[in-house]
Specification:
Helix content is about 30%, strand content about 20%. The protein contains 12 helices and 12 strands. The radius of gyration is 21 Å and the shape is globular. The chain starts with 7 loop residues before the first strand and ends in a 9-residue tail after the last helix.
Length: about 325
């Protein structure tokens, strides 16, 4: 049985108190929200903080309003929120696809957005990792996925992060130097170890969503089972309609790189179209090219790359069908 190492547990009630405790505890401290990512990592000795500062009891992080989502809102609350489903349904849908009901009851929006990158060579017990002489991400010097590479190729496996990048959401961070707002796309680094631009002392406070000005978005997830599993591919597709034509579009891939991967060429292929089959096919081809999954998650990597084209097509076809439904005239009332 894997056991947690000894640590000091602190539970502040305000954001200011949490920041002060983190400053006092020093670099051997870590924040925790739901704990569904940090605690398993601690059991595997991937992360070994001496002090854990819990954020779940801080009311400033638990608000849920149109366009403003507190980082400690649980994934279940996000998935079931009438406010979120009315104003940003894709966020609720992505949250509902994370893991299982029990873990969604504990896991938080902020935790999923800051999820540690994953890899078959990293997400193992300490004894297993020691048997292969560890890996670059923890205790070793080599990336076993790409041994000649100077960097770690662990994968971003968040379901909500690709959606936030597609929506062009913004994150409010609070730290010792005050607050700052970071676009979602700039919050992530394409590096398996240093995968966030957030400083360790900073706290993700809230997510700010764009105004509903004619945009629509969907998220599709590929995994082995219909529940529990992390994505081996996620596709977030966003379009803004203007009189039935795509004025702007973004396609973001998850599960194929160390950060959510925006594909500008796919969005460019959709602009000025009505999502006709030819435009969708062009966008799917554009997304297929830069998708370079490696052999560090589930399934065979070449098949996963092929699925990029399939899932981008499905996501865009769903957006086209939804737009057609909204444009359809209401049925005539029966006579007589």
């Amino acid at each position: 049985m894997l056991r947690l190492p000894p640590f000091t547990y602190l539970e502040p009630r305000t954001l200011a108190e949490a920041l002060a405790l983190r400053a006092a505890a020093g670099p051997d401290a870590a924040y925790v929200a739901g704990g569904t990512d940090l605690y398993p990592n601690m059991k595997r000795r991937q992360q070994e903080p001496k002090t854990v500062i819990a954020l779940a009891a801080i009311a400033e992080l638990r608000h849920l309003a149109p366009g403003r989502l507190g980082a400690c809102v649980t994934l279940t609350e996000l998935a079931e929120s009438a406010v979120v489903r009315r104003t940003a349904e894709v966020v609720a849908s992505a949250a509902a696809l994370v893991s299982t009901p029990l873990l969604r009851n504990m896991g938080t929006l902020g935790g999923n957005l800051c999820l540690d990158t994953r890899c078959n060579y990293y997400d193992q017990s300490y004894e297993w990792r020691r048997a292969i002489d560890f890996c670059m991400k923890k205790d070793g010097r080599i990336c076993w996925v790409a041994p000649s590479s100077p960097r770690c190729w662990a994968v971003s496996s968040s379901d909500v992060a690709p959606v936030m990048v597609a929506l062009d959401a913004a994150y409010l961070l609070a730290g010792p130097g005050g607050e700052r707002v970071v676009p979602a796309a700039r919050f992530y680094r394409h590096d398996g170890i240093n995968y966030l631009t957030k400083q360790p002392e900073e706290i993700l406070v809230e997510v700010r969503l764009p105004e509903p000005d004619g945009w629509d978005a969907v998220y599709h997830k590929l995994r082995r089972r219909g529940a529990f599993d992390f994505p081996v591919l996620g596709v977030a597709a966003w379009v803004r309609w203007d009189s039935g034509t795509v004025a702007e579009a973004r396609v973001v891939l998850g599960g194929v790189a160390s950060a959510p991967q925006l594909v500008p060429e796919a969005g460019a292929a959709l602009r000025g179209t009505r999502l006709e089959p030819e435009a969708i096919a062009a966008a799917a081809r554009a997304a297929y090219g830069p998708a370079k999954p490696l052999d560090n998650t589930d399934f065979e990597l070449s098949w996963r790359k092929q699925m990029t084209r399939v899932y981008v097509t499905r996501a865009l076809e769903e957006l086209r069908a939804r737009a057609a439904t909204r444009r359809a005239p209401p049925p005539h009332p029966p006579r007589g």
